[in-house]
Specification:
single chain; 404 residues; alpha/beta; Aspartate Aminotransferase, domain 1; Aspartate Aminotransferase, domain 2; seven-stranded mixed β-sheet; globular; N2-acetyl-L-ornithine:2-oxoglutarate 5-aminotransferase activity
Length: 404
């Protein structure tokens, strides 16, 4: 029996919850990928903002191979050195004093929401369980997090959602003031809303959420699964807002491609309410994952990398806006570091998936944020040359689609 595989095998063997492109990447280096036929692509998607250092970065390869020769897994009956080193670095670099490691952003948000409810119920009783979330948000694919996320299409058809979840529109001050009350245990928000189009939340609105959470003794949760780990040019997006959350979640880029998530919070919240046995994760804090994440974190938090993100993002935004004017396909380009959302217009309005497919044929891989936004999330250390080459290929796509 042959070990050779092809795209058709996906349709033959895989549960069809995804619809991948026809090509199969087999090798990556920096911000370039090659498929089975040897065609090369500039990677402007970074595995949905995951491969923060691109592909096969030497620091990651070294950390993984060294740790693989030492210790793979010990379970949470014990601790391990890579987890402790990474936790200390995260606490030293942020508001946090405690870290919980898991495997994904969904698990990090699940932990955050459980902690917020546990804290509120412990302090005030079983009525204080309401979670305020926002329409258009996305917080993961567990049943709890997908219910909290503000996109009903992801949670419908599976029976009743968990109780106590209230959705309001972003930036609707009156609505959020009506929604937050004595039974509110948490307010959860993405500082930059990713899946609905890379939309930054007004810092004034975040300040309002902070005030309301404090007034009603609810936990303010910032979901920085995508916006964290240098993506915006700040180490974490909250650092540019003047607002400090009680709980922050992150994943994606922190592992640079190795699955890991983290929930960060204060000692006052964690120590009293998440005691041994209340929550856990079999693979959370895995030595391999933490060793790789520590190497990634050491690179992305350097001033040189963060300044480079801001500089390259400004350059990419200028070029994309020029494309929008020349070809009439982008009505707006939103930039939050190397995380850009291009709102489609003209003949391509509502056709983000078709745009993505056309781009792939021209050798540039990007992603989408809903049916009308092209989402670009490059490696944070993409070279100037690869960035411009990818933008050239994207402009070729614009020219072709505009001509049609």
């Amino acid at each position: 029996m042959s070990d050779a595989v092809q795209r058709a095998d996906f349709d033959r063997y895989m549960v069809p919850v995804f619809a991948p492109l026809d090509m199969i990447p087999v090798r990556g280096e920096a911000s370039r990928l090659w498929d089975q036929q040897g065609r090369d692509y500039i990677d402007f998607g970074a595995g949905v903002a995951v491969t923060a250092l691109g592909h096969a970065h030497p620091a990651q390869v070294k950390a993984l191979t060294e740790q693989a020769g030492k210790l793979w897994h010990v379970s949470n009956y014990y601790t391990n050195e890579p987890a402790l080193r990474l936790a200390k670095k995260l606490c030293d670099a942020t508001f946090a004093e405690r870290v919980f490691f898991c495997n994904s952003g969904a698990e990090a948000n699940e932990a955050a929401l459980k902690l917020a409810r546990k804290r509120a119920v412990n302090k005030y009783g079983p009525e204080k369980i309401d979670i305020i979330a926002f329409n258009g948000s996305f917080h993961g694919r567990t049943f709890f997090t997908v219910s909290v996320g503000g996109q009903a299409k992801y949670s419908s058809g599976m029976g009743p959602n968990p109780a106590g979840i209230i959705h309001v529109d972003l930036h609707d001050e009156a609505a959020v003031r009506r929604a937050v009350g004595r039974n509110t245990c948490a307010i959860i928000v993405e500082p930059i809303v990713g899946e609905s189009g890379v939309v930054p939340v007004d810092p004034a609105f975040l300040r309002l959420l902070r005030e309301l959470a404090t007034e009603h003794d609810a936990a303010l949760i910032f979901d920085e699964v995508q916006s964290g780990n240098g993506r915006t040019g700040a180490l974490y997006a909250y650092m540019n807002t003047g607002v400090v959350p009680d709980i922050m979640t992150t994943a994606k880029g922190i592992g640079g491609g190795f699955p890991i998530g983290a929930m960060l919070t204060t000692a006052a919240i964690a120590d009293e309410h998440f005691t041994p046995g209340v929550h856990g994760s079999t693979f959370g804090g895995n030595p391999l994952a933490c060793a790789v994440a520590e190497a990634v974190f050491d690179v992305i938090r350097s001033p040189e990398v963060l300044e480079g993100v801001r500089r390259k993002a400004a350059h990419a935004a200028r070029r994309l806006r020029a494309m929008g004017q020349q070809y009439g396909l982008f009505s707006e380009v939103r930039e939050s570091g190397l995380w850009l959302g291009c709102e489609l217009a003209g003949s391509m309005q509502g056709k983000a998936s078709a745009f993505m497919t056309a781009s792939a044929h021209n050798g540039v891989l990007h992603i989408v944020a809903g049916p009308n936004v092209i989402r670009i999330a490059t490696s944070l250390v993409i070279s100037d040359e690869e960035l411009d080459e990818g933008l050239d290929r994207l402009e070729k796509t614009c020219a072709q689609l505009s001509a049609r």
